[in-house]
Amino acid sequence: MIEVNITDEMLVEARRKASEMGHLKNSMMKGDRNIIGFLGEIATQSIIGGDFHNTYDYDIMTPSGKTVDVKTKKINYPPKDYYACNIFTANEKQACDYLVFAFVHTNLEKAWVAGYYGKKEFLKDCDFIPKGHVADNGLKFKRDNFEMKVSQLKPSSQLVAEFGKAAA
């Protein structure tokens, strides 16, 4: 897992992008967590390089031409190996090469790029969690999900090597 300190510049960029986006159709949080999502993308881009492509299918195109969609969660504590990394089943249609999972602290000072997985492989290896399922922490799923734990992801150290940006 790679910890990223969120800079003032990152926060300004995330706020700008969130403001421009507004809220998307079918957004469960009505746009309230757009800043969190953009901070996850910005933190990921800071370690792998590449260019932002804010499309439905992917967020970043790496220097090697691979496409990455970043999935970000807001958390109160540094992530643990048993934390869930989810995508909604509707997202299985997204055309990207890789999924990267990130976490952003509620105070917006730190982000963690937890790891990654090839999109096609993720869909084969993940667990299906149906709408209505109640997790051990009491969270009730509002939509069907695909899920892996942080411990199942390919490590962030490989992420940097996979996409070709030299480690900072």
Task: Tell me what you see in this structure.
By secondary structure, the protein is of the alpha+beta class. The chain has one domain. It is 26% helix and 29% strand. The chain contains four helices and ten strands, in the order βααββββββαβββα. Strands 1, 2, 3, 4, 6, 7 and 10 form a seven-stranded mixed sheet that branches. The protein has a three-stranded antiparallel sheet with strand order 5-9-8, covered by helices on one side. A hairpin with a 7-residue loop joins strand 2 and strand 3. Helix 1 (8-21) crosses helix 2. The protein is globular and about 40 Å long. The model is unreliable at 24-31 (pLDDT under 50).
Main features:
26% helix; three-stranded antiparallel beta sheet; 168 residues; seven-stranded mixed beta sheet; alpha+beta
Number of strands: 10
Q: Give the count of helical stretches.
A: 4
Helix and strand run: EHHEEEEEEHEEEH
Class by SSE composition: alpha+beta
Indicate the percent of residues in helices: 25-40%
Rg (C-alpha, Å): 15 Å
Integer count of domains: 1
* Main sheet characteristics: 7 strands, mixed
In short:
By secondary structure, this protein is an alpha+beta fold.
